[in-house]
Amino acid sequence: MVKPFAFTGAKRIVFGRAAFDGLAGQVRDLKGSRPFVVLDRNLAATGIPDRLEALLKDAGLKPVLFDRAEAEPRLELADAGAQAALKAKCDLVVGVGGGSAMDLAKAVAVIAANRGRAADYLGLGKVPGPGLPTIMVPTTAGTGSEVTFTAVFMRKTLKKKEGMNSPYLYPDVALLDPLLTLSLPPGPTATTGIDALCHAIESFTSINASPMSELLSLEAIGLIAENLRTCVHDGGNVEAREQMLLGSLYAGLGLANAGVTAVHSLSYPLGGRYGIPHGMANTLLLPAVMAYNLPGALEKFTIIAEAMGEIPDDLPLREAACLAIEAVETLIEDCGITETLGDFDVREEDFPALAEAALTVARPLANNPRKVTREDAIQIYRDAF
Known about the structure:
Layout: E1 12-15, H1 23-29, E2 35-40, H2 48-58, E3 64-69, H3 75-87, E4 92-97, H4 99-114, E5 123-124, E6 134-138, E7 150-155, E8 160-165, E9 173-176, H5 186-205, H6 211-233, H7 238-258, H8 262-274, H9 278-293, H10 298-307, H11 317-334, H12 351-359, H13 362-367, H14 374-384
Parallel strand pairs: 1-9, 2-3, 2-4, 4-6, 5-8, 6-9
Antiparallel strand pairs: 7-8
């Protein structure tokens, strides 16, 4: 019997080289005339903002640029963006950048349309109604935010990260152009790429995985394993960048439908308490969580190993499954990521408090193929240390 499932995502996905050139047409298709554009401030040096503004203005549109998006965005920015969009009478929101910019854009759209406050929408199903139409344009191959229903924010005063989770956050259009990822430096290419791999592995092993999500998650694992090294060390390779962006997209669709698991629950406190970027936090934890989850998903880990280029044939099941962890560790090393938790001033005496905080991020833990207790979480942090 096939497990019953539903499958959701962005309403329209447009993928391809030079797809960005069609942005104005996408705005018009959504009946927009005055788009509110949320930009990653790191894009200023790439020329993308100038090009974007020209594309929209040449089409007779009147864009309003909001270039205050920051890594691990503060919740207050979502309210500030919504107020700016309302003041300018904008009728559509475009998010351009990494996951933080797109998360901010999705939140701005629902806050502006519902005239609410960001804090009221944190959690699952708290957004009361549809937002302004949205178009998401990723410039990294990592978060998959262009096709998910989540927007994550930092709450500085509480030293924690929290997310809005609602079907109303699904973008109307995901516009993916691999040419926009060519300027991403090696470091962010590596950590955002491992973040995408994390999404793919977690969604593939999630207890909520379906036959359809598994297809996408597994294909994502193969694409990322095959292309991430090239993207890091030869960033101008368009073919590799294209395949990585496709892998990130598939991983995003997988996580939107099957959910992530313990890596994300344990990584949130690292971002909230120490400011460790999301992609790096997931990278630091992924091998340790995989090692913990191994007994709960031996068959799937063997499939992951094969997708990453390992040859598990003729090995006992557990040994074959262990190849998946080895393949991930080798990929991380080959991408030049050498940091550990200790490099971010995380101390062993902090582990109990981190574990307590991780257990409050309950939804991913509920998806995990193996139950995680407080003591288990402490040991995973210790293993990643």
